Amino acid sequence: MYNSYVEKQSTNNYNMEKMNPEIFVHIIYKMKKFHYHNTERRIHQGKHITRKVHIKHNKGYKSVTIKGGGRNRTVRRALKKHEIEDIKKGKFIRGLFLECKLRQ
């Protein structure tokens, strides 16, 4: 019964006037408990390139690792708030890893 009430309220876009305060606190807690991790690996010009995105609660990072050429290099940057929101919505972010350039 508890879950069915939450599902009914979620279809109403979280209408706060009709919602039980205990349920509202539970929904906000669930929204804060967001975890996401994605990894992409490819080989380009003989070097292994790994791109990672990791989000836990409302903080996260993006990283690029290049393996090859005698040493491994990694660049790690924090995700911005609007990038985290777009990832939560499932949107594609063009140029997400452009900030993670490695110096040659």
Please give a quick description of this structure.
This protein is 30% helix and 37% strand.
Q: Please state the average pLDDT score.
A: 79
Total strand segments: 4
SSE order, one letter for each helix or strand = HHEEEEH
Task: Please tell me how large the radius of gyration is.
Answer: 19 Å
| N-to-C span | 59 Å
Q: Mind describing the biggest β-sheet?
A: 4 strands, antiparallel
Strand order of the largest sheet: 1-2-3-4
SS summary, helix count: 3
Strand content: 35-45%
Number of domains: 2
Give the CA-based shape.
elongated
Structural class, by secondary structure, is alpha+beta
Low-confidence regions:
4-12
Could you estimate the helical fraction of the residues in percent?
25-40%
Write the SSE topology.
Blueprint: H1 2-11, H2 21-32, E1 35-44, E2 47-56, E3 59-68, E4 71-78, H3 81-89
Antiparallel strand pairs: 1-2, 2-3, 3-4
Mind explaining what this structure looks like?
The chain is of the alpha+beta class and 104 residues long. The chain is built from 3 helices and 4 strands. Strands 1-2-3-4 form a 4-stranded antiparallel beta sheet, with helices on one face. Mean pLDDT is 79; it is low at 4-12.
